[in-house]
Design a protein that fits this description.
The complex is a heterotrimer of chains A (256), B (296) and C (827). Chain A is an all-alpha fold and 256 residues long. Helix content of chain A is 74%, strand content 2%. Chain B is of the alpha+beta class and 296 residues long. Classes of the chains: A mainly alpha (256), B alpha+beta (296), C alpha/beta (827).
Chain lengths: 256, 296, 827
């Protein structure tokens, strides 16, 4: 993308970095700077609010459970589009922020072909070409982008049906729902992947850092770019160190 | 005449059974509008504004006798004026009182997600309960007759109540009471339908309107407001009355059936993830401390 | 109305013309619809515009405004040519068989015999019946002969019927098309439909004619209505349920105003106003009491022969004890009118400096017009103006009419007194509707603020003036000082007392016609009890019977209708004598049997009396063999196809004349295009336009259902319904001007201009008038320079009557608000 975008992102990162900090330990790498983390959690917060307020209106079975959260039905309805706008706005910044690492490469296509192995946890390490984000993450990301666009395009006529006509609103309604369902599935998977499925990942989005170990396991190419070292070499070294230490009965030291 | 209290038959956005439904059934009521004897005097418009204590609004001249382009949140009853040049060169000036049709299968109620914002009484009246309205305006897109109107100040939607307050006390709606020519009548659906059929027959046999007929569209289950039209084959001439009013599939097949199923399917992702975790386990950063894999 | 609103439901056919009842009488229009629904009755609408009434018609014809006589004359011609006339009715109940004096000339050249070009008046002595046994020649005195020559075969060349036939033979379908713009085939369709009620000599069916001010507001308005009446006589439709000639009154109580002498030349109950030649009461009575004029073998009730009873009782009501036989019942107190003092003349007099002040109550003179500019200028010249109104109106604010500069305003010296009055819902009293019903209404709310009832204001003024006369005397204080004012509270006279006074009471013990004694002080049972010896008083003989000893008939609300004809004899009270259809004797054949046995109104009972569902409008014991005519108010006892002598100023038969401002010369007689006796005015503001000056569009004015005259622009609900003035313009004319709907146009007449938005419509079509393409436009009258939208600056500030001409009908003095010439351009 243009350099203007990059300049904007760099500036934003710098400004947010000035107000926050990330502590990187010896055996860690900086994965998500303050700016990315603030954006992520802003997006997440608005998404959850939009999701819950949306689900309240989605079906009568959830209406009575969820609307009280927002102060009743009318307030739920009033807030939902504003939650969504918040979501869209922060996500738009995140889109600029992550445009480069999220762009699709032939490697991602290769990755997708072995999705089965990924799900089945067959390999200990990710293939050496997996960079800052893997294809699954990118897929989710771009699904959000697509859904957001659909949300926006369908949502505005639902917001102002008189201005767009009854048919537009009625069709938009279905697309809005479909987008929400896609997001819902993605969201569930995302939470799972970001927490239980990959220990250390959640920390990267809270404190900003990952263990090097985590990096070479899940994003070898990024490890290479970030450290200038071969992930496979460092991994094997770590394995050897661990084997030795294991024989000594000591605790593993931080990999260098 | 339908009298007695109003019995709720259906409620919008409500899970489970309708409280009190079927406990007592009153007769279905109906408003009869003979377009062929309407003189466009707007007494019904005034009666509606006055009875419902609606605030006045400023209108502007729009090259027509019609008071405003369409009904408004504070103007529920509007006569639509249309000049129609017939094929034989003669002119017709069609005047149709536009208001809520009180469909037997109401698109607004189908679309409404808010619990209790729209109720349908057993007598056929479809009524908005503004205290429960969330202002989502799904009813606006659900209605094939462009009736519900949003008030951006109160954030609520409003429409003709068929004077449920009057009807509930055994009175006729205000518009009916005001009509000077008797082109508006009120009674049971069966009676009004009979009257309308007879009038349509008279128009066919004595006034040369061979296509005269009764507008009571089955696509919305029939309506509790019916029209006698000079030409039932061209309802669009009367200020855009739809020939075949449809509730959008959105609010029928999708909302009623597909949506809940789709939601359940989506939520199925959660147990899948859970079972993935307990069966496949997490992807730990490698190398992990040594352990032993057991085949269970 | 000869009949009544409800009675319209009994008709088989309606000709609605010169009126727009669906818009201006929406409540009454339920009855035409009842007739449609329950009798399959047809509606023919003839109007310059496709109105909301036309929207309910079976047949609509667009006519050029003002061409009505041509159309109706064409119908008369068609009915005679196709023998669709009621022959028995015609011979026995009209003057068709009467023979007219020799020397009478039909107006082939536009002029009847006797026209004096120097005075623009007719010597009407030849417009008379031939006396039986006379030669037909010679100069008999200008009075109807007591014994009229007649020919029941209708073949006599000077019979009214033959003259009528000859006169209207010129109104061919082709001529109708040239004048009215109605295509020949359309006219024939309407003519065939209208006269179809007399197809094959059938007398059962009935047609009605319904009209309003679209007929009266012409320089020949009375004659349009007469043409309709003649057509109805010709078809035997008068006096019958579902028939008649029915004037729809445009205000809730205009009928009452007329009955109570709202016009300068009558006293209450249509007694004639004294003239300077009426040197005493006897002379007055001789002049105003007709004597019967009929064939020797026939009988005539001649009800106006009771004039002395009505007049004496009226004078007793007016002057009480001061009216005595010895002083001619104080007849000399009454003003004598030496000339016309009609509406337009009053303003003309004020403009010319003769009228120095004006009380304007219940009307907005500037807006009412015509030629509003002249009225505004007239008020500027007045010394004072008292306006009693419920709103500040254009009249009380004439000094700020648009175009008046601040300098000009400073020069206006007129003192304006504005008196806040009570509205109609703020007082009780009666309304008299078009059907002649007197209906009592109760006060709904008390007047706000300082507002007072009109009668209270008038009492205050009168009592003050009387005090001055009592103290200071004057030239002729008697009529003021002696006016009977015997009310319980002289300052706040109750309408109950007034209504009872109008009904009349006995001043001594008297015997009523049935022999019963009416005690002194008792209310009279009806006008039959009136006396000419001073033993009764009665404010208006027509209303006698409205408040009897039994109480207020006007307050009755009985809904019984035993006949099913909608007579409702116990609902309120209608004049005369609570009969609902006038001249109902004519609903029977000469032998006294109803023409239609299914619509039985009255009939001759074998017991020797006229009885029926309605009150017989007849001498109840006059047997059919006596051949008494059913039209008892005419000295002839029959309906007048020929209006003899001074009945009309402009001819015994209506002739078509062009409006004062017309796009063409009259095709019947181009040299005498307009009404020869029409009255126009001569001030610099009384200008009349011609096509050669560029005024070539025909303009008509009217009301909308959404508004009531010039009041409702003060009511937000009405303003919401129709917010601002507009001009209805045919699509084709708008295209020529390059004007779209909603754009401003300027309409100009010789007198002024009017700006409003254009309503471009297909409801007015271009017309071919005498072979020339002619446009019509229409202007609703409701706006001016004072109202909600006007005050907020949201509308144009011009009044429609800035355009209309000061020309008046010589018979009824009504201005020509319909069918004048304008030009129109993009503003």
């Amino acid at each position: 993308m243009s350099t203007a975008v990059e300049r904007f992102d760099d500036g934003a990162r710098a400004r947010f970095g000035a107000h926050g900090r990330t502590f990187v330990r010896e055996n860690e790498l900086l994965r998500h700077p303050v700016y990315s983390r603030v954006l992520h959690w802003s997006v997440a917060a608005f998404f959850i609010l939009a999701l819950l307020s949306g689900l309240a209106i989605y079906t009568p079975w959830l209406y009575r459970v969820l609307t009280p959260l927002f102060g009743g039905g009318p307030m739920t309805r009033l807030l939902h589009p504003w939650f969504s706008l918040g979501f869209v706005a922060f996500f738009a910044l995140q889109l600029l922020n992550w445009l480069q690492p999220m762009s699709w490469t032939p490697d991602d296509t290769r990755w997708m072909r072995r999705l089965k192995e990924y799900v089945a946890n067959t390999d200990k390490l990710e293939p050496e070409y997996v960079d800052f984000f893997n294809a699954g993450q990118k897929l989710y990301f771009w699904a959000i982008v697509g859904s957001s666009v659909i949300f926006f395009i369908s949502g505005v006529p639902m917001w102002f049906p008189r201005a767009f006509g009854r048919t537009t609103a009625a069709i938009g309604y279905v697309f809005h729902d479909l987008a929400a369902l896609v997001m819902l599935v993605g969201f569930i998977v995302h939470i799972y992947e970001g927490t239980a499925a990959q220990p250390g990942t959640f920390h990267s989005m809270t404190r900003g850092t990952v263990e090097k170990r985590w990096a070479w396991t899940h994003h070898p190419a990024w490890y290479l770019h970030a450290t200038g070292r071969q992930p496979q070499d460092d991994y094997e070294a770590a394995v050897r160190r661990q084997a030795g230490r294991s024989a000594e009965g000591g605790t593993p030291s931080m990999p260098g | 005449m339908p009298t007695g209290t109003l019995q709720v038959k259906a409620i919008s956005g409500h899970s489970g059974t309708v409280p009190g439904a079927g406990v007592q059934r009153a007769e279905e009521i109906c408003k009869y509008i003979d377009v062929t004897t309407c003189i466009g005097c707007k007494a019904c418009e005034v009666a509606c504004v006055e009875w419902n204590d609606m605030p006045f609004q400023q209108t502007t001249f729009d090259n027509t006798y019609q008071t405003m382009p369409s009904t408004a949140w504070n103007y529920w009853n509007l006569i639509k004026f249309n000049e129609h040049q017939r094929e034989d060169g003669t002119l017709q000036w069609l005047m149709r009182k536009d208001q809520c049709m009180h469909c037997e299968d109401p698109g607004c109620l189908r679309a409404c997600p808010a619990d209790g914002a729209i109720v349908q009484y057993t007598n056929g009246i479809v009524d908005f309960q503004q205290e429960n309205c969330i202002g989502c305006q799904y009813c606006v897109s659900g209605c094939p007759f462009d009736i519900p109107k949003f008030n951006s100040t109160t954030k609520k939607v409003y429409k003709c109540t068929l004077c449920s307050d009057r009807v509930g006390q055994g009175l006729e709606p205000a518009c009916i009471k005001a009509c000077p020519t008797g082109c508006l009548k009120f009674g049971t659906k069966a009676d009004m339908r009979g009257l309308a059929e007879a009038r349509a027959r008279q128009l066919r046999e004595h006034s040369g309107f061979v296509h005269a007929g009764v507008y009571d569209p089955p696509s919305v289950g029939g309506t509790h407001v019916i029209y006698v039209l000079h030409d039932i084959t061209k309802p669009e001439l009367y200020g855009g009355l739809p020939a075949n009013p449809q509730i959008p599939v959105t609010y029928t097949a999708w909302k009623r059936v597909a949506k809940p199923i789709a939601l359940l399917l989506s939520l199925f992702a959660a147990p899948v993830a859970f079972f993935h975790y307990i069966s496949q386990g997490p992807k730990e950063p490698q190398p992990q401390p040594p352990g032993q894999e057991v085949p269970r | 109305m000869t009949n009544g609103w409800i009675d319209i439901k009994n008709t088989d056919l309606m000709l609605i013309m010169g009126g727009n009842p669906a818009e201006n009488h929406p409540c009454g229009f339920k009855w035409p619809i009842e007739a449609k629904l329950h009798r399959n009755a047809k509606i023919i609408v003839v109007d310059p515009r496709f109105t909301r009434t036309a929207a309910n018609a079976d047949l609509f014809l667009q006519i050029r405004a003002g061409a009505d006589i041509a159309f109706l004359g064409g119908l008369i011609n068609y009915a005679i040519q196709n023998n669709r006339i009621a022959r028995d009715y015609l011979v026995n109940y009209t003057n068709a068989a009467f023979i007219i004096k020799e020397g009478f000339k039909l107006p082939e050249d536009g002029l009847y015999s006797g026209f004096d070009p120097s005075t623009h008046e007719y010597d009407k002595s030849t417009w008379n019946y031939e006396a039986a046994g006379s030669s037909g020649r010679g100069n008999a005195p200008a009075a109807l002969p007591p014994n009229v020559a007649y020919d029941v075969t209708l073949a006599h060349s000077r019979s009214v019927f033959q003259l009528l036939k000859q006169h209207y033979s010129r109104y061919t379908p082709e001529m109708v098309e040239r004048i009215t713009g109605i295509a020949r085939d359309q006219f024939l369709k309407a003519a065939d439909l209208f006269t179809s009620v007399r197809k094959d000599g059938d007398m059962k069916k009935v047609a009605t004619i319904i009209y309003a001010v679209g007929w009266t507001q012409h320089s020949f308005g009375t004659q349009i209505i007469r043409t309709a009446a003649m057509l109805q006589l010709l078809l035997g439709n008068v006096g019958r349920a579902g028939g008649g000639v029915n004037a729809l009154r445009g205000h809730s109580n205009i009928q009452g105003a007329t009955d109570m002498a709202g016009v300068f030349d009558i006293l209450p109950g249509y007694l004639k106003m004294p003239a300077p030649d009426d040197v005493d009461f006897a002379t007055y009575l001789k002049r105003t009491t007709p004597t019967a004029s009929k064939p020797a073998e026939w009988d005539s009730y001649n009800y106006w022969s009771n004039t002395p009873k009505f007049a004496v009782s009226f004078l007793k009501a007016l002057y009480g004890e001061a009216a005595r036989k010895e002083n001619d019942w104080a007849f000399h107190y009454l003003p004598k009118i030496d000339r016309k003092y009609s509406w337009v003349e009053i303003w003309d007099d004020m403009y010319n400096g003769h009228v120095r002040g004006m009380f304007a109550f219940g009307m907005n003179g500037v807006q009412v017009g015509p030629n509003s500019k002249k009225n505004i200028e007239a008020l500027k010249k007045a010394d004072w103006l008292v306006v009693g109104e419920i709103y500040p109106d254009e009249t009380s604010e004439f000094w700020r009419a648009p175009g008046t500069t601040p300098d000009e305003m400073k020069k206006i010296q007129t003192t304006v007194y504005r008196l806040p009055c009570a509205g109609f819902a703020e007082k009780d009293g009666t309304f008299v509707n078009s059907a002649r019903w007197l209906q009592w209404k109760n006060i709904a709310i008390t007047p706000p603020g300082d507002a007072k009832l009109d009668q209270e204001i008038l009492s205050l003024i009168f009592l003050k003036i009387r005090e001055l006369y009592q103290k200071e005397g004057g030239k002729f204080p008697d009529p003021i000082v002696n006016l009977a004012w015997n009310y319980t509270d002289p300052l706040h006279r109750s309408f109950v007392e007034l209504a009872k006074e109008i009904n009349g009471r006995a001043l001594a013990d008297i015997a009523d016609p049935t022999g019963q004694t009416i005690r002194s002080g008792q209310q009279l049972p009806g006008f039959a009890a009136l006396k000419d010896d001073g033993t009764t008083l009665c404010g208006n003989w027509l209303y006698s019977g409205s408040w009897t000893e039994a109480g207020a008939m006007t307050q009755r609300r009985g809904t019984e209708d035993p006949s099913g004809l909608g007579i409702y004899p116990n609902w309120a009270w209608s004049w005369p004598a609570n009969r609902r259809v006038m001249y109902n004797r004519a609903s029977c054949d000469p032998s006294g049997k109803p023409w239609d046995p299914e619509r039985r109104q009255v009939w001759w009972n074998e017991s020797g009396r006229w009885v029926g569902n309605d009150v017989p409008d007849f001498k109840v014991d006059s047997p059919p063999k006596d051949h008494m005519g059913p039209f008892i108010m005419n000295p002839e006892g029959i309906g007048r196809l020929f209006g003899p002598l001074a009945a009309f100023q402009d001819g015994p038969f209506p002739e078509y004349y062009e409006p004062i401002e017309s796009p063409i010369a009259n095709p019947l007689h181009p040299a005498q295009s307009i009404n020869p006796v029409v009255q126009t005015f001569k001030t610099p503001l009384d200008k009349y336009g011609t096509p050669s000056q560029g005024f070539n569009v025909v303009c008509t004015t009217y009301r909308l259902t959404e508004h009531y005259h010039y009041w409702t622009k003060n009511n937000p609900m009405n303003v919401e319904l129709v917010p601002e003035p507009f001009v209805e313009v045919p699509v084709e004319l708008a295209d020529e001007m390059g004007v779209k709907g909603g754009e401003r146009v300027k309409v100009s007449s010789a007198r002024g201009s009017y700006i409003a938005k254009a309503m471009v419509t297909r409801r007015i079509k271009p017309m071919q008038i005498d072979g020339r393409k002619t446009y019509q436009i229409g202007i609703p009258i409701h706006w001016g320079y004072r109202g909600i939208a006007e005050d907020a600056g949201r509308t144009e500030l011009t009044s429609a009557n800035l355009l209309s001409p000061t020309a008046i009908d010589p018979n009824a003095y009504t201005p020509e608000f319909k069918g004048f010439l304008v030009k129109i351009e993009k503003a």
